[in-house]
Amino acid sequence: MGLAKAIEVDFYAFLSVTDKRHATVLTGILRLTNENHKRRAIGEICEIIAFITNQKVLQLDGVHLVKFNPKTQINFHCNFLPFHPNGICFKITLNDGKVVLKLTLINSKVVL
After folding, report:
1. Which residue has the higher pLDDT, 23 or 61?
2. Which of 11, 41, 81, 95 lies most in the core, judged by the most C-beta atoms within 10 Å?
């Protein structure tokens, strides 16, 4: 595997209380792989998600293989973010413990 040790995805507020198979969660996973979910058939999306879930690995940005278990590395929080009630946070940590990416998406806009 590559340099990335851990990836975490956090869903907040209303995004966290919807069904865990809701399209928002699938979109969050697909964003990590750089897949364009709008250009994929539903069956293809299901195959990608099944592969990631079963193999516990994803291709980060379409290039780097990284261990990823959606059951343990996707977190759901009922609390609101301070700047918006809903959001998705992505955090990538390297093997040396350094966090190289931490961003929050609000309505598809990045908030650092």
Report:
1. 61
2. 11
